[in-house]
Amino acid sequence: MNIKHLIAIPLALSLFSAAQAKVTLPSVIGDNMVLQQKTEAALWGKASPGRKVTVTTSWDGNKVSVQADPRTGSWLLKVPTPEAGGPYEITISDGDKVTLRNVLVGEVWFASGQSNMEMPVKGYPSQPALGGTEAITNAKPSRQIRICNVIKRSSLSVQEDPQGAWELNSPGVVANTSATAYFFADVLQEAIDVPVGIIVASWGGSTIQAWMEHDLLKEKFPEVDLGSVEGSHPVRNEYTDACLLYNGMVAPLAPYTIKGMIWYQGEANREHPDQYVRLQTEYVRMMRGLFQVPDAAFYYVQIAPWPYHDPDSFVSGYFYEGQQKCLETIPHSGMAVTCDIGEWGPIHPSHKREVGQRLAWLAMQHDYGFDSICADAPTYESVEFKDGKAYVTFKVDDLMLAFLEKPFEGFEIAGEDRVFHKAEAKIDWDYYKRVIVQSPEVPEPVAVRYCFRNWCKGSLYNNYGIPAAPFRTDDW
Q1: Superfamily assignment of 14-104 in CATH?
Q2: Which pTM value belongs to this model?
Q3: Please, is 54 exposed, middle or buried when counting C-beta atoms within 10 Å of its C-beta (0-12, 13-18, 19+)?
Q4: Distances (CA, A) of 413 to 71, 324, 440
Q5: Is the peptide bond before 255 cis (omega within 30 degrees of 0)?
Q6: Cα Dmax for the chain
Q7: Peptide bond connecting 378 to the previous residue in cis, omega within 30 degrees of 0
């Protein structure tokens, strides 16, 4: 463990030195940034204590002013932003001026999670991201995608600067950016044809509680160990101990104005599904408050199949179920299912483009008016058992279920003995939302499960290629 990451030290709050200007800014406020369109976008920093800070925006020439704190010099204000466009300039002055250049106005998304979010477009060693080479070689700085990769930092106390600046869509930047986040931005920007900015803060192996705030955990999750951040024991792990990544990588970004969040995390918490429902629900509430966007969209990835210690275990199935419950506990949320793209070897599936696409399609449907697609996964609705068969009905928004030239796999069926057997499945062509499941080994079935084991590949989709979510009809 690199303990130096954990020491709270004074930070240089600026892309500009004090010798250049009295106004200093966090690194997330700078050249090349993207501001959320048609909103009140937050800007903040430090200036001479007590001095008036004036912000002038080139898109309308208007000025917005605020007085810096008489003691600390801290200031925060919000500027009205126009419809998407740019590039623009923003001048910030307390007598001496700082000018931010090449600023775009468009859609801003925050991406976070553990290693499957962190995995870059160039891939990990011996673990490629399919489509990565094309994305890197086709990257053009003129493309209206801007990227802010937050540098990894774990901290015992809340920091002020996020240590990550906005960069252009160049091959070198794209290669080292989260593949999931980049493909999300790539698909979304092409579809809505406005600038898209992505802020990426991720760390492989991290727990969700590492990304959460101390007071929230202390109040609502007494079972979570806060000893590291409270000083009752040394840091045990800089990316799993509670609050350390929130302090170093999330809180310093606030209150940057965003449209929404994408989230790919859960493997580190997979053995505690019930707790995770509570944690993820409170995480989203916390983030919406932190960024001062109470209705911010939240789209997350249901973790992919992987053998773990026992490929036949149902541990992942219970976690899938917990993740799906979050659709009910988190307003304005959506879940990208990945049960069809897991890989036996690496825990980091190579199909990151599909993950980014599915997240982008959720945003397009629910936030950008693309109502001609159905990006939501088909989910289990009900089951009827008769004549030795199970008739499973899905919630699928009036869209026909399809199998895309793949054999149906992943279905299991059990009788009163609660022993599951591999089952055959087919579409009920008399009622296109229903699948008929049966097995000669289970003449009187009472339960069905689909893709509920650690290792099981999905094969059922809606007409838009969105895979059905894993489920069980029992409560065993």
Answers
A1: Immunoglobulins (2.60.40.10)
A2: 0.94
A3: middle
A4: 68, 21, 10
A5: yes
A6: 83
A7: no
